[in-house]
Design a protein that fits this description.
This protein has 2 helices and 6 strands, in the order E-E-E-E-E-E-H-H. With 247 residues, it is mostly beta strands. The protein has one domain (12-235). A 4-stranded antiparallel beta sheet has the order 3-4-5-6, with no helix packed on it.
Length: 247
Amino acid sequence: MGGITEAHGQMTTMNPFIANPGTGNLLGALQFARQLGHEGFERTDWGLVLPRFGFAYSVHPTTVVRGGFGINTQAPVGGPEFNAQYESHPSAAGFSGSIQVSPTTNPQPYSDMAVTTLSTPYPSYPNPLPNYDPTQSNGQAPPTYIRPDGSRVTYYENYNLGIQQALGRQTIFELNYVGNVGKRIYANGLDQLNQLPVSDLQRYGDALLDPLSLHPGIPIPYAGFSTNNTVQQALLRFPQYQGGSIY
């Protein structure tokens, strides 16, 4: 099964395993599919084999044993990439920009005047695209981390075994076992890359919400990190980002 791709490679991820030059090379920086020469970040899962077989054997003219085994996948539309929790498509940060024309950016003499007219050309985007700056999301919520093995969907192994016995000419006794095992089940809620360990919650308690400036004993994670940020932000695995999740 193939992973999520974009025809022109306009897809961006936060890779937690590469250095961020804006934070003194702490891990966690943006990575761009097109810059890598790829259309996406997920590898094709060539190992997705879905066998199904069954058997029926007549042990005796009045006794039959039946069984079967099969593997079924969760449809991609039900996977984490397309889950209702992730209704938005993967990030295209660095490949797009926006221009706001408002009374603030284009003030007019009177408040009821239009901020632009047909005779006034709409301003062009001033920055070059694509923007491959790996630090451009520092201080913000980063794009979701797209794992290289993210195309490995959930699957279920299904088993059944049964015996059927004729009791006379009009009665049948039947006993069956049916079971299934789920593999690669997506654990919703365990996808927060920047979640503090419980030990920090116990150690710092309410102080996690204090400005870092009130706790000089806690080191600044990197040069330029504002002490107006909370203690919690300073202790995160990726203190340069506000949050962070994973596909």
